[in-house]
Please model this.
Amino acid sequence: MDVKDKNKNSIARLLTYAGGHKKLTVLGCTLSGISAVLALAPYICIWFVARGVFQAMPDYAQAQGLVRYGWAALWFALGSAAVYFAALMCTHLAAFRTAKNMRKAAARHLVNVPLGYLNASQSGKLRKQIDDNAGMTEQMLAHELPDLVGAVITPVAAVVLLFVFDWRMGLACLVPMLISVYLLTRMMGGNNARFFSTYQKAIEDLSAEATEYVRGIPVVKVFQQTVYSFKSFYASIMRYSKLATDYALSCGKPMTGFTTVLNGTFLLLIPLGMLLCSGGGWTVLVDLIFYILFTPLCATMMMRIMYAGQATMEADEAVRKLDEILAVQPLPESGRPQRARGAEVELKNVTFTYPQAKAPALRQVSFRVRAGQTVALVGPSGGGKTTAASLIPRFWDVQEGQVLIGGADVRELATQELMDQVAFVFQDTRLFKTSLLENIRAARPEATREQVLEALHLAQCDDILAKLPQGLDTRIGTKGVYLSGGEQQRVALARAILKDAPIVVLDEATAFADPENELLIQRAFETLIRGKTVLMIAHRLSTIQNADEILVLKDGAIAERGTHRALLEAHGLYDAMWQDYQTSAQWKVGKEAAV
Ligand SMILES: Nc1ncnc2c1ncn2[C@@H]1O[C@H](COP(=O)(O)OP(=O)(O)OP(=O)(O)O)[C@@H](O)[C@H]1O
Model:
């Protein structure tokens, strides 16, 4: 669905996701309306019974058609229940399909949004946004919407019956209903209409803070910072609590009025009935019996309208959340895609600012990695290394300048072509909860088992394979099968080796690795980059001494560039980093020797 449909109300927007099942929803609502009308019939039958009894009074045996009306009341009640059941069947079927379509629309859209967006948004938040909201609409379409139709029919019928029986008593029923509608709009309108979105946001914050708190417990314990870490979690609990209390208080008076007025109809009806009976005889009494029976039904229907109103607010919020995802612009695809001629990578006068960031992360950056060469990116944290590397597989599009692969702008390459050209290995390796085989095959689905085994071997993963109970077919991440950070890195390298793309972009991170793993990862790196065009983010300067060029990125710009030797001779930033690195390496060796 298009975001341009935004102005439609939430139910109409939801129904655009229903596709062919929209008719089923309409049918369900119509049946629910019919069921509401049928549900009124037994009351009319009872009125006929009462009239028959009073007419025959005192010789009740003479009463006409009592049994017939009794049966008719029963059949109408059963018919109403059966039609309502059919209505719910229709709306449930349509609701499940609609929720499925909403999830599909979001998932389909996410495939086309910039990869950087997926990286930046927490996957948990996105899942909640898609899944919970689709679930919320299920309840709305399956139950509340058909009930709403039924609930609206009843007051309309009440207005009709007002004229059919006794208009004075009808009015006594109708006035409380009108007052309750007024109180309902007060509860659901104004600030309270905005409450739901604020309330949802407060719940999301609370859940994010709780997760953050639980995740931080080990660090907190080590540094004895319990009070500080609890502070922001506590603040979010208090925010939520204040919001919920304010809402409850603001609804207090109208809600009390709503319930009192609805249940207090008898206060009007019975004295009025008595008054009218004294002058009108038994026919007025029959009408009074009808209205006494009919009044609780009106109250139930008004309550249903209230719940449906609440569900509509939820549906509004669900549609708004989905819109947020659909509003993320997909990366434009070129209508006439070009092909990369060769494996050279070039950044030409690139300036890039992250969405919503104030300052650019890269400013006028230019460099070239010739086919088969290795270029290393080094520099202080926040200098722009990851940003520069992520522009090559088009995680984001640049605002100024160009990123070229084999002479073609990455924006002009078909996505498939770009993905075939580049393999990237970043620090936060993601392994799926599936077999090791499928995890590696994600890089090349048509690869044979032998090719996967070969890639694992080249990525120094033989020891990992040996310890897994079902070898290649072992599911990762379940039933105690967990891989350490260093092991996960090697599996990610096996993936990249299997992909065998001519360009490799990698973040040489060994942060998770113990010395043994570090050595294995280093060997796997060497296999991966042999004969490839490589852009490498280097954290340990020892690994890049032989790079064809080293770029020192600082504050989003290239501060220095050259070979290892030339940069040392220049005695600049790189030289200082190298001296620091040497000192820390010696300190580490010294410490190890002392143990
Ligand atoms: N998703 C993002 N949204 C907004 N700003 C970002 C995003 N990612 C990075 N930045 C900012 O862009 C700048 C460059 O960050 P980048 O991660 O590229 O640096 P880096 O040199 O790779 O750092 P490190 O060595 O710590 O990984 C930093 O100021 C950072 O705060």
